[in-house]
Amino acid sequence: MSSGHSQADASSGVLTELDHVGIAVADLHAAVEWYEEMFGATVLHWERIESDGVDEALIKVADSYIQLLTPFRDDSPLAKYMDRNGEGIHHVGYRVDDCDQVLEHVKAQGARVVDEHPRTGSRGTTVAFLHPKTAFGTLVELVQE
Q1: Which domains does the chain have, with CATH numbers?
Q2: Can you tell me the distance from the alpha carbon of 137 to that of 16, in angstroms, rounded to the nearest whole number?
Q3: In the chain, what percentage of residues exceed pLDDT 90?
Q4: Has this prediction a pTM greater than 0.85?
Q5: Residue 86 CB coordination number (10 Å)
Q6: Is 8 helix (H, G, I), strand (E, B) or coil?
Q7: Contact yes or no for 70/27 (Cβ under 8 A)
Q8: CA 55 and chain centroid, separation
């Protein structure tokens, strides 16, 4: 970094925290068992997200999560993603204070979005996804708790 700014000046702007890393897995229970065996991690939250066609298991890491995801419908976006890419990191979720405000800002700045308007995510959060095409190949999720 040669921007001339010190680390004390660094800011992540409207991104307040890393909320989670979403990992696509073919077998949710096998993935959970692996995290338990390897790291002694336990699942904090299980949820079926009907609107996205996925089952999730959340493992807490400090103030963030590992979100293990598996599709339960063949027509879910995650199933289609896994057909093309297999298992692995699917997206990164960043916490924001106001999902709607940040979403409108990024759209005004030319970002392509998956969600035109915020919607309900897991744990009762408010979420919106930004398309990887204008985010350097990363599917970005904005998460408001």
Answers
A1: 17-144 (3.10.180.10)
A2: 21
A3: 91
A4: yes
A5: 9
A6: helix
A7: yes
A8: 14
